[in-house]
Amino acid sequence: MCDTNTEATKKKVLSCIQPSGLLTLGNYLGALKSWVEMQNDFDCTYAVADLHAITVRQEPAKLRSQIYSTFAILLALGIDPEKNTVFIQSQVPEHAALAWLLSCYTQFGEMSRMTQFKDKSKKHPDNINVGLFSYPVLMAADILLYKSDLVPVGDDQKQHLEIARDIAIRFNNIYGDVFTVPEAYIPKAGARIRSLQDSSRKMSKSDDNANAWVAILDGRDDIIRKFKRAVTDSGSEIRIAEDKPGISNLITIYSAVTGKTAAEVEREFDGRGYGEFKLAVGEAVADELAPVKQRHDEIIGDKKTLERLYKAGAEKAESVARKTYFKAMKKVGFVL
Ligand code: ATP
Ligand code: LTN
To answer: Are 167 and 237 part of one and the same domain?
Structure first.
């Protein structure tokens, strides 16, 4: 039975991912896996945030292939483009346009407190561009255009979501009820995955050491090799402990992939060595990612279908975004 009432009252979820490199196992377990689950309960809008990606210099051909690939990964994971809205941010011009409007309602002082800007400026001292500074305003536009109720974000993005809320409240206080004030949504399943080479750091697609991270599209042999080489800790026991960050990380990964609790994993590998455990984690991850890679490769190989899907996604997104954008423009006093 089709219950349209339920459809209409579903909360709206929005999230985006940057195509700034090859997506990692960290992106998958920490974010994308829950995006897939959320489509059952919410009205979801997911985008490839390519405009955000150029806050760091990108090589044109590489950026283009990463945009295609990121879009294809979203579909390969099982996100249904009919049921949800899946699109590429730069194909909906309202994002950049609303970001300009919102930037005039954002204070220099509040933006100067953003920790990600400070971190990324240190990382790229030769390219501290204005886009990097105003990045959270574009993110606010992404969120506010779709009247999003919930935004699944990791810890590193909470401050940006807070700014989006502040901008929405400020704008609404001046002009009335234009924007929905979004809430952060911390998915149940969101695991924090650490680098395989340095357990004090998160697994990150921009890490120069390719052995530190596993790409969603890595082949089976590469995945197993990277896990075999993963740094472990002193001792030989397989258990979660503060002084065992390497093994704890591997247990987190294994349990996220197999659905077993950490205690079950500890019991399963009781009395067995690190080598055996690392191989088991590598194999489990390879088994989980293989069908995603296979579907991704099929989608990428069929450029016509891919193009049809991203164009349809952009059209669907724009039909919503346009309304919010024009409403905001009208309230400010522009002639439409
Ligand atoms: P970059 O290296 O360019 O900063 P990143 O790999 O850290 O990129 P983001 O694009 O910033 O990833 O993050 C996309 C999403 O993936 C966010 O929701 C973020 O919280 C999540 N994510 C990224 N890395 C991890 C990780 N190691 N563990 C869990 N979640 C992660
Ligand atoms: N800044 C985010 C990506 C991002 C996003 C968004 C997330 C861009 N726009 C809107 C949630 C909502 C990141 O780098 N993880």
So the answer is: no
Give the E-state strand segments of 93-182 in sequence order. 150-152
- Of ligand 1's atoms, which has the minimum distance to the CA of residue 21? 3
Any idea which ligand is nearest the CA of 160? 2
Rounded to the nearest 10 degrees, the angle between the axes of helix 220-228 and helix 274-301 is 150
Residues 117-169 have pLDDT tens digits of 999 999 889 999 999 999 999 999 999 999 999 999 888 899 999 999 999 99
Does 107 sit in the ligand 1 pocket, CB within 6 Å? no
Query: Given a cut of 50, is residue 3 above it in pLDDT?
Result: no
Strand partners, 44: 13
Distance CA 226, CA 11 (A): 40
Domain count, the chain: 2
Q: Is residue 1 part of a domain?
A: no
- Which ligand 1 atom lies nearest to the CA of residue 154? 20
Which stretches of 83-218 are assigned E, i.e. beta strand? 85-88, 150-152, 183-185
> How confident is the model at residue 190, as a pLDDT?
65
Structure tokens at 226: 């990277």
Q: Is pLDDT above 90 for 189?
A: no
Range with lowest mean pLDDT among 152-156, 194-198, 314-318: 152-156
The pLDDT of residue 7: 67
Question: Catalytic amino acids?
Answer: 120, 202, 205
Identify which ligand lies nearest to the alpha carbon of 186: 1
Output the ligand 2 site: residues, CB below 6 A: 14-16, 18, 49, 52, 139, 142-143, 151, 153, 157
Range of the domain at 73: 7-191+303-332
